[in-house]
Fold:
Amino acid sequence: MTESETHWTRGSGGNQGTYVQQQAPRPTEAALSIRGLKVVFHTYAGDVQALDGVDLEVQRGEILGLVGESGCGKSVTALAVAGLLPINAEVISGEVLLDGKNLLKMKKEAVRLSRLNDIALVFQDPMTYLNPVLTIGLQITEALTSDLKVFAEDLIAARMTKLEAMMKRSLTEEQELESLRRAKQSHNLSNKEGKRLASLRALDYLRLVRLSEPEKVLKMYPFELSGGMRQRAMIAMALVRRPRVLLADEITTALDVTVQAQILELLKDLRDKIDAAIVLITHDLAVVSEVCDRVAVMYAGSVVEVAGLVEFFKNPSHPYSKGLMAAILRPDLSSETLESIKGSVPDLINPPSGCRFHPRCPYAYQKCPESKPPMTEVSPGHAVTCFLYGG
Structure:
């Protein structure tokens, strides 16, 4: 078994469990490509250089773990992909390619439709994004019926996908199909029919995320659900339009260990059932080891290392990645103290010149503050931005 065909997951015992080798699907096609993305936030104190030339690629059918400490630009990257940057943010340069189309060149309405149909986001705190006065069912069906014409065409196309074949949908009945065909031909779907079909699909996706009694959950309000149930409902809402890219931003941070394990297991199951690229944003390397196929490490607005999961844990190469690994309590090592990365996170209004990590790097030398190192491939599928590699 090659490294590209395996990933590591924790055994029993929580965050301090042992690493175990498991089978993982091979990525086949790039769904999302980010190239040279630079984002600046204009503030009264000055311009915050939040992203400094981010380069990332996510394949269909894989989970990419985007790792880094708070303030490194993980969430800003996700917001830039979804077109949800705040009003004081400005994209200076770069491309965000979704199946080859540059989202940054699209008009606002085209980006909105792309966000509706192709890109889904799940955030850390469901209660912040769920409407407390609307039922779960109404919030899910609203996402479906906002464009009845697209929904009608989408329902017909859905039958041809791997996901729908697994779900034993009620929409496979011949009378339902005929109704949808007529709706597509007339480019119309009545509000009543649309809501009925949307409710059926909402039930299907609540079952997909393993919510028990989905008929009951459909009629419940967010405050009536536990934290884990709300997070599952958010994931169902994100997946209901069958997006090409799912951005999951710290979705397990506010959950207890048991529920966290359930959500991570759900993500692994969804990877096998949906033909989408999943970006899991987290600061927890233990979470990454649980579900991801590849790892991208960010520091101060830049991606400093990208590698397959096995390769990353066996051979972290960037000095920052080595520092992160050294700061993890591991049961297979007898050290009684944890190492820390000296220094502090840089001020991105006045970031360090050259490599932004050089003020904290134990290996820094004269060249490091002079220019930014390029991304260098140290082994197949493993790239690092550091002058210690490639001359």
Notes: DSSP finds 14 helices and 14 strands in the chain.
